[in-house]
Amino acid sequence: MLNVLMLGVGQCGNRILDAINKEAFGGASRLSKYYSRQKFPSRVETIAINTAINDLKELRFTTAKDRLHVPNLHGVGANRNVGKQGFWDNREMIMEEIEKRGDFDVAFVMTSTSGGTGSSFSPLLIHELKERYKNISVIPIAVLPFREEGSIYLQNAAFSLRELMEVDAEGLILADNQYLKRCSGDIATAYDKINTMIAQRTLFLIESLDSEMLSVTDLGDFKTVMSGGLRMGTMGFSQADRKNPSVKSAIQNSLKPGSLLYPANVYDEAARAMVIIQGSREYLDVDEITKEIEKLCAGAGHVFKGLVIKKGYPKVLTLFTLASVPEIETLYAQAARAIHEEKDRKQRAKKQLSDAFAHIEDLEEIY
Amino acid sequence: MRLTYLMVLIVVILTSSQAKDSNNEVTFSDFTLYTGDSVEIASYTIQLVEVQSVRDGIVVIRATKSGGALDEQRALLQNNANSFDGGSENGGLTVTITDIFDDQSAKVRVEYPKDMGIPRKQTAESGSKGPGSQPVLAVEKSFDNDNPSVGSEVKVTVMVKNIGGGLAEDIVVDDQPPLANFVYIAGYPPKIKSQLDPGESDSAIYVIDAVKEGTVKVPPIEVRYSDSKKNTKSNESAPFNVVIAPKSMPDLDIKLNPSGSIPLGQAGRLNVSLYNSGKATAYKVEIKSEIEPSGGLDATDLDKSYFEIDPGAMESYSAELTGRSSGEYTVNLKVSYQDGNDVLLKEGSTTIVVLEREYKYLYYLLILPLLAVSAWLIKRYKEYKY
Ligand SMILES: Nc1nc2c(ncn2[C@@H]2O[C@H](COP(=O)(O)OP(=O)(O)OP(=O)(O)O)[C@@H](O)[C@H]2O)c(=O)[nH]1
Ligand SMILES: [Mg+2]
After folding, report:
1. B284 touches chain A (CB under 8 A)
2. B182-209: b or e for each residue (b if 16 or more CB lie within 10 Å)?
3. pTM for this predicted structure
4. Which of A45, A275, A322 has the alpha carbon at shortest distance from A173?
5. How far apart are CA B84 and CA B70, in angstroms?
6. CA A62 to chain centroid
7. CB of A204 within 8 A of CB of A238?
8. Does B380 contact chain A (CB < 8 Å)?
9. What is the CATH number of the domain that holds A131?
10. A306-362: per-residue pLDDT in tens?
């Protein structure tokens, strides 16, 4: 059985973690924690880490002992330098809290790239995990900001994404708020929806990695996929239903833009992929599956296939790394522009003020 | 009745001689009149004819109204208000002899509506009147209780007095036969002397019992007599009304107030109260209990007796009930009491439930899962409370 560590850092990470805990209860109701038990496929430990205590209080499905407040900081106000300092000051405390929970084979670190706390803590945290756990695989799940959220968020996203790529992690899974915005009208529901999507996919992924059945994918396959291409990837998911139980359309649907967490043309841009199919035996037509996978193989370098026999209509998760990320480049261009503009604005303002002061340069107060 | 009148009058006299009661627009004036003197007010004249008896307090008054609408001679008992022409409340006059000084003079109170004006005293021209040599008999019939209730006794006084100047002979009083609302008990017919000298009087009393409620017009009594020349004369008393009230009876209301259902083998209380809502005292009140079905519910101190319960009074007591076997019981209380003659009966009842034995483990079956669920909920709540 896999030992899985899930860390949600910063408000965004905390809330995705809470969504995972909620999904583990069955996901249905606000009150499910009162009557239901969490069903994690593996041994899963979840910890929500934040500098803002209010963000931690907001959580509903994460136990109190799983909420770690990094003291003396009430949020870092999107300032990553303050965030980094905060992590260093509290490093031992944070790591102790994690190490208390035993050994881990794999860790998922969920964070926004654009806030202060999550984006600054996560690269440092991943580094620490790698130092302290010999054989751990660490996969960050990074959330990109809405592009209109402002220049600081854009610049944070640019720098923290680079740090996440530079740290010694097993690739990076992307989720893009901007891309997922179409999910729902207002911000709160959009967040909830996005978080639920990420939660479902992550739990499904763990379940299939931990399955002991034949012809399934394992952690090794997962790492191989993640190390492909630019080591950045994302996930797609689809669930067949009574009206259309065909596994073929389930696979196709899981690759459609609407099912992905980050915009990509999978057939053209995927570097390596992993397709995990779950469902009752009668729906899993091997010929159809093979045909679909072959289609994917034509573009992607290698495709791992996993089959999990479990009662129900087919569910398909596709995980892939990308060979090109035009969207990311656009983001960096935007960020650079924003940084320049910010710099200009600052200089202009500074000049204006010194011009103003110049008026009284040789003067003294007279009473 | 007379006593109350007297008291009211004394109080009125003490506070003021002029009534200030303008509500019913009636006022009064007091006059000291000698025989033959009169008081005039509006068109009325009230004349003191004579003081018939200082001892018995009887004064003869004549009331007239110009135009002849009223001409009435009446013997008035001292401190007895007499209405003329409907009385002062109804636009007439009310006359009361409040004091008798001697056989020539008396104090007379005249009550009259305020708007009549001011009464004036007229002194008699000396020698104009006065008892001549003719006999004049005044006759009066009075009840000692003008407001009896059914079953109560009334004394009727018949009084005849010679207020004239000559001997009255062959005196016969003619009282009406018994009235439908009364039965005559004793002394009827009243006997009066057959001769009366001037100034002499005679009276007789008989006793009757009121038997039927209602308003009764008491007919006048007639006296017939002759003078020395054998001229026959007669006179009549004034008629008056008597109201007979319904018989006053005690009436006991019984109320049973149980403390609630009684658990098997335990005791409860039953409060009993008796209220006399009648007009008479209830005597020899006895309460006897009956429990149906018998055997399953024990009661102590449920039977009780009281010597008397006055009208408007309430007695209550409390009995202990013990449940011997579960079920529904009817507690019946029979109250018997007397009003002097008759025995009266009343009943009251209530239902008492003796509960089945409670099997506690049945509760545990309910409570334990509830406790477990709450404990679980609290544990979960604490686990997630940050
Ligand atoms: N998908 C998703 N994105 C979120 C959610 N909450 C915040 N974000 C995004 O996260 C970014 C802000 O980062 P946060 O996680 O709130 O910031 P933080 O890490 O708590 O840092 P500070 O608040 O600055 O200390 C913005 O781009 C938001 O759009 C959420 O619940 N779901
Ligand atoms: Mg925050």
Report:
1. no
2. beeeeebebebeeebebbebbbbebebe
3. 0.57
4. A322
5. 8
6. 18
7. no
8. yes
9. 3.40.50.1440
10. 998 889 999 999 999 999 999 999 999 999 999 999 899 999 999 999 999 999 988
Rounded alpha-carbon distances, angstroms, from residue A30 to A26, A35, A64: 11, 11, 17
Nearest chain B residue to A55, by CA: B386
- Out of B380, B382, B386, closest to residue A57 by CB: B386
Q: Could you tell me the fold of the domain covering B252-355?
A: Immunoglobulin-like (2.60.40)
Contact between B76 and B59 (Cβ < 8 Å): yes
Does position B364 have pLDDT exceeding 90, yes or no? no
* Whole-number pLDDT of residue A175: 96
**Given a cut of 60, is residue B21 above it in pLDDT?**
no
Enter the ipTM: 0.76
A234 and A193 fall within a common domain: no
Residue A179: nearest ligand to its CA? 1
d(CA A121, CA A126): 9
In the chain, the amino acid numbered B96 is T
Give CA–CA dist A56/A66, Å, rounded. Answer: 10
Cα distances from A212 to residues A39, A61, A216, in angstroms, run 17, 29, 8
The residue behind tokens 């967490």 is A261
CATH architecture for the domain at B137-244: Sandwich (2.60)
Question: Domain containing A317: what range?
Answer: 224-322
Q: Are A49 and A218 in contact (CB under 8 A)?
A: no
Nearest to A276 by CA among A247, A245, A233: A247
Q: Which residues pair with B215 in a beta bridge?
A: B243
User: Counting atoms of ligand 1 from 1, which one is nearest the CA of A52?
Assistant: 25
Q: Kindly state whether residue A141 falls inside one of the protein's structural domains.
A: yes
